[in-house]
């Protein structure tokens, strides 16, 4: 399994869709800032920004999942048109 920010971005979007939540909903339920969630969703996390374990923990608690669920690789052909 490759732990990439692209896989995480996709996993987060999928979980948000499954739970029918938007950025504001996730922020309210986790206590994370809307900016943090937006940066994660828009792949704007740079190498000098630390990805906090607490952030991951809050997201996993909200979505009732494991970190691996958020980092799963997309199936072959995902996103190709």
Keywords:
81 residues, mainly alpha, 57% helix, 0% strand, 5 helices, 434 Repressor (Amino-terminal Domain), Cro/C1-type_HTH, Lambda_DNA-bd_dom_sf
Give a description of the structure.
The protein is mostly helical and 81 residues long. It has a single domain (5-69), classed as 434 Repressor (Amino-terminal Domain), CATH 1.10.260.40. It contains 5 helices and no strands. It has helices spanning 5-18, 23-30, 34-41, 53-63, 67-71. The longest helix has 14 residues, at 5-18. The model has no long low-confidence stretch (mean pLDDT 84). It comes from Ligilactobacillus pabuli. Residues 12-70 form the HTH cro/C1-type domain. This is HTH cro/C1-type domain-containing protein. Pfam families: HTH_26.
Number of DSSP strand runs = 0
Query: What's the total helix number?
Result: 5
Structural class: mainly alpha
Give the overall silhouette.
globular
CATH topology: 434 Repressor (Amino-terminal Domain)
Helix content: 55-70%
Integer-rounded radius of gyration: 12 Å
Under the CATH scheme, which class?
Mainly Alpha
Looking at this structure, what is the CATH superfamily?
A: lambda repressor-like DNA-binding domains
Mean pLDDT: 84
Low-confidence stretches: none
CATH architecture: Orthogonal Bundle
What's the domain count? 1
Element-by-element helix/strand order: HHHHH
Strand content: under 5%
End-to-end distance, in Å? Answer: 24 Å
The main β sheet shows up as: none
How do the helices and strands line up, and which of them pair or pack?
Elements: H1 5-18, H2 23-30, H3 34-41, H4 53-63, H5 67-71
InterPro entries: Cro/C1-type_HTH (IPR001387), Lambda_DNA-bd_dom_sf (IPR010982)
Protein name: HTH cro/C1-type domain-containing protein
Domain HTH cro/C1-type: 12-70
């Amino acid at each position: 399994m490759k732990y990439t920010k692209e896989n995480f971005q996709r996993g987060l979007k999928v979980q948000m869709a499954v739970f029918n939540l938007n950025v504001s909903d996730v922020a309210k339920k986790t206590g994370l800032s809307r900016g943090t969630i937006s940066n994660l969703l828009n792949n704007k996390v740079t190498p000098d920004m630390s990805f906090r374990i607490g952030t991951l923990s809050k997201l996993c608690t909200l979505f009732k999942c494991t970190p691996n669920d958020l980092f799963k690789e997309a199936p072959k052909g995902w996103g190709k048109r």
